Amino acid sequence: MIRQGLINTALAAASTALALGLLFAGGELLLRAKYGSVPPGPSASWSEFDAQRGWKMKPGQYSYFEVRAARRVDVAINELGLRQGALASEPAPGVERISIVGDSFIFGPPVDDAETIPAQLQALAGSGYEVVNISAPGYGTAQQYRLIEELRAKGIKLGSKVVLTFFTNDVLDNLALNYRTLAPNRRQPAFAVDAAGELKQVSFPVARPPRKDPRKPPGLLKRSLFLPYVHYQLEVVAMSYPGIVTALQSVGMAPSLPRTPGVVLGWHTPGWEEHWRVSARVLEYVVKQLRALPEAPEVYIAFMPSPFQVQETFRRAVASEAEDDPRYGDFLADPDRPQRVLRTLAGQLEVPFIDLTPAVRAAGAQAPMYYPREGHFNDAGCRVAAEALYERVILGR
């Protein structure tokens, strides 16, 4: 009797394992048939070391399965290192060029070329405008300006309008601070504006060491498309129905954050004011330099909100940490501190300020604007941001 019970248990376990194995194999085959035989990504090969900027994007065509957004992405980087089509030194006669400058929120690692904010702004603006995407993932304001300097040295004109976008992590990027620990990030240059008003690089990046064994392929789970796809679908359900997060919290299963959010670390950690002052000085310097150009473009500053400022599910995840870490409570009491401080600076510089938070927050009440685990705008979020920029920059409303 006991022996038969053990046999039945073993058969049940084997059947379950076989069913899960078949589900996994079937899911992998279906996803690879749908998305093509592309590696998980983003690709580590699309950037290379740069002594001034830390890294720069390498020209080429890149296709990958964005594991945190559970979708295939196709990226084209031109000969200038921009996610942009071929770019002449100046726009064609009768065409107004507008440059959008930023980090990964403008570059758009989890979306296709046509879905990025600059690309969707181009579609809205029409053929009378040329919208240029000047960005790279992970860049702070000073790195972005170094890229602008390099482009201008190659004869590229910025156009009649330049939009400087600012994300909450930029206060950390300009100081080359690690997002998790606030320790120095050795792969990113740090900048400051000295007493004479000049932008100085105060630390120099080191190249990322090569993989110990580049011939060794990643394991099966690392190469899987199906597992991150299932994970993503579960996160979308939780993000669409915030009550699920509350229900999990009520039974002691609160979702944990993978790391302290940049908006909390950069803007609600004691001493954040000093961090902000560095970025404020850098922004002031960049605005001054752009206004001194022969073409003297009109300069805008646009704020890109963090998902923790916009989506209710993200806010509830932060709330679950508030009892153990006062920084989270400080954030919940004043979530819009970054854009308020940035708006004040823009006023002092007499620069038009565009806060994308209201538009994204309103749209986010109806549908997710960000990829849950990946953290960047999805295609809908990029569209809402592009529409807000179109209203202010193109239509002047």
* Global geometry: globular
Strand coverage percent:
15-25%
Q: What's the CATH architecture name of the largest domain?
A: 3-Layer(aba) Sandwich
Q: Name the CATH class of the largest domain.
A: Alpha Beta
Helix-strand makeup class = alpha/beta
CATH-defined fold name of the largest domain: Rossmann fold
Helical segment count: 16
* Biggest β-sheet description: 5 strands, parallel
Q: How much helix is in the residues?
A: 40-55%
Helix and strand string, N-terminal first?
Answer: HEEEEEEHHEHEHEEHHHHHEHHHHEHH
Q: What's the name of the CATH homologous superfamily of the largest domain? A: SGNH hydrolase
Cα(first) to Cα(last) distance is: 81 Å
Structural write-up:
This protein is an alpha/beta fold. It folds into two domains: about 1-35; about 90-210 and about 215-395, Rossmann fold (3-Layer(aba) Sandwich). Helix content is about 45%, strand content about 15%. The chain is built from 16 helices and twelve strands. The protein has helices spanning about 1-35, 105, 115-125, 140-155, 170-175, 220-225, 225-240, 245-250, 260-265, 270-290, 305-310, 310-320, 325-335, 335-350, 355-365, 380-395; strands at about 40, 45-50, 55, 60-65, 70-75, 95-100, 130-135, 160-165, 190-195, 200-205, 300-305, 355. The chain has a five-stranded parallel beta sheet, with helices on both faces. Strands 1-4-5 form a three-stranded mixed beta sheet, with no helix packed on it. Strands 2-3 form a two-stranded antiparallel ribbon. A hairpin with a 5-residue loop joins strand 9 and strand 10. Helix 3 crosses helix 16 and helix 15 packs antiparallel against helix 16. It is globular and about 90 Å long. The model has no long low-confidence stretch (mean pLDDT about 85).
